[in-house]
Amino acid sequence: MDATPVRSQTATPGGGDPMIQLVGVGKRYADGTDAVRSLDLSVDRGELVALVGPSGCGKTTTLKMVNRLIEPSSGRILLDGDDVTKVEPNGLRRRIGYVIQSGGLFPHKSVLDNVSTVPLLLGWDRSKARARSLELLELVGLDPAVHAKRYPHQLSGGQRQRVGVARALAADPPVLLMDEPFSAVDPIVRDRLQLEFLRLQEEIHKTVVLVTHDIDEAVRLADRIAVLSQGGKLEQYDAPATVLGAPATDFVASFVGADRGLKRLSVTGIAATDLESPPVVYASDSLAAAEETLRGEGAAWAVCLDERGTLKGWVGLRDTAGGVATVGEVCHRMEAWVPARATLKQAFQEMLQHDAGWVAVLDGDRYVGVLTPRTLHEALRRSVDADALGVPLEHTEVDNVPS
Ligand SMILES: Nc1ncnc2c1ncn2[C@@H]1O[C@H](COP(=O)(O)OP(=O)(O)OP(=O)(O)O)[C@@H](O)[C@H]1O
């Protein structure tokens, strides 16, 4: 299984090192529409915050006020302590990358020129801008030799989106603003782009504000979710598990949906207590010794490890019959496994995908236990009980997996 990064839910979000601060921010458009009335919101350094809410609630207006594509009518916006209205535009561009739906690329410019746009505007020399752009294309998973000279219409939707991200990162800004960045592609590509972005974010640690109408996307990507209602009213601002498990208002409960218990699986980690420990045999053991272990424990199968505790596979009672070989020669490959940091949802998916009766849990190479349908069911119940009590999931953390 793919070792998908999972957003850690252990860190207390909002730890108090603000990179972006909105203080009583409001926007009244010329026609009198109060898009945002008075919003207070603080985003910490390195944090990924998703703004969610129904259409027209003011998400995009809020985002665009941060990089001054829209001027606020009231309040203050601070970027690392500086009032954005006092930062000159080039300085702001250097500090804030901006990604929009479909990448928002210049159609008449090559991929390379698109990515080099901001560095050139900032006065970098051509060769430096070019070198940086080629490096960024690699970073977002595009082969520069293939893609650098292409034009946007020669790219797939997913590739355009990657170029959009590369362009936003070109001047290495500490802050990225993303407006529905993954919504113009089909669900499979979206899924892949979201995972790629999570991996990228683990590497680059930008402060990210992401606008999305998709609560699943927010749950998957964000450290904190800000749920807005009409007029940019902040209904709740919490970690995904808390928004799902303890919606602050009826509005939030109805916005996150009746299936929030299921959604919560995607933010519920595997806990030590979820794991079973079937018998363990070693690759170098004789089949006779393995058979004795299995019969002694009344088990039909055992996990097979090498001397270093690395998972080699599994061996059944039938495999031990009569031969002279070692366990390592007869053990079966383990198809279904998840990393210890995986979520219950990923463990379920793995079990279904391989039609497996159990899923091995690995911490790096090291085997730590197995999940079975019974233990997954218990974990599900734990998640739902916590949900009913409105308990955040700290006590179910994956970090509890024994070492
Ligand atoms: N230039 C404008 N002039 C007048 N009203 C506007 C303007 N731009 C947006 N609005 C209004 O402001 C409100 C907030 O719009 P905004 O685009 O910020 O919402 P949103 O939450 O991003 O919506 P969506 O999810 O549909 O993109 C809406 O009622 C919208 O019609």
UniProtKB/TrEMBL annotation:
This is ABC-type quaternary amine transporter. GO terms for molecular function: ABC-type quaternary ammonium compound transporting activity; ATP binding; ATP hydrolysis activity. Residues 331-386 form the CBS domain. It is an enzyme of class 7 (translocase). Residues 20-256 form the ABC transporter domain. Its EC number is 7.6.2.9. Coiled coil: none annotated. It comes from Motilibacter peucedani. It holds the Pfam family CBS. SUPFAM superfamilies: CBS-domain pair, P-loop containing nucleoside triphosphate hydrolases. It comes from the Bacteria. Belongs to the ABC transporter superfamily. InterPro entries: AAA+_ATPase (IPR003593), ABC_transporter-like_ATP-bd (IPR003439), ABC_transporter-like_CS (IPR017871), CBS_dom (IPR000644), CBS_dom_sf (IPR046342), P-loop_NTPase (IPR027417). Keywords: ATP-binding, CBS domain, Nucleotide-binding, Transport.
